[in-house]
């Protein structure tokens, strides 16, 4: 069962409690702090384009990259409504290709946790470094093992809306550092009160900050700093999400 197919059609409805505006302001502040006030910015794992649209409002020339055709269809609908000149590319962010370099790249909402093989993650960092301008900036976030083990763990989460509902069964396999969530969706079809069931399985991997730093440096980038998400504080053992800032440091051949 492929992830983000059926879920894409109702994703934004279930994410309407996420403070994307505040997250976007935080991300914009970090970009400005490191001198990225305009120019091309690539959003890796852009999903339905919510953050891509917010950064476009700040004046960046945005490129959105995602592997899910269904999520990109939702992103294109937002683009038509906003009129922003965003380029969307359906690509796997582990092996993405751009037409040239960009001033910065971002990846938020734990998109990098979906890369479950460390070698693939290191390869993605290599491509990011390859497509960044000299001394360009990469800002990304990731969920921590603490969040998977202590917050999500072996839990079932359910939510009921007027035209759709979901049941999320979560499992964390500590030895493998893999988080699995089995998603059952019930979506009303047409105007009749008939609900169709869809199922998806999502996998994410827990990485430590030390591992992230290692992969960044192996790929040729320079690790700059890390923050407990949405603050300027250093990460702690209880951090659920961490933001990392890295810089292009020459191209590897």
TrEMBL record:
Domain of life according to the entry: Bacteria
Keywords: Methyltransferase, Transferase
Keyword Cell cycle tagged: no
Pfam families in the cross-refs: Methyltransf_25
Protein's GO biological process: methylation
PANTHER family (UniProt xref): TRANS-ACONITATE 2-METHYLTRANSFERASE-RELATED (PTHR43861)
Name by which UniProt lists this protein: Class I SAM-dependent methyltransferase
Natural source organism: Mediterraneibacter hominis
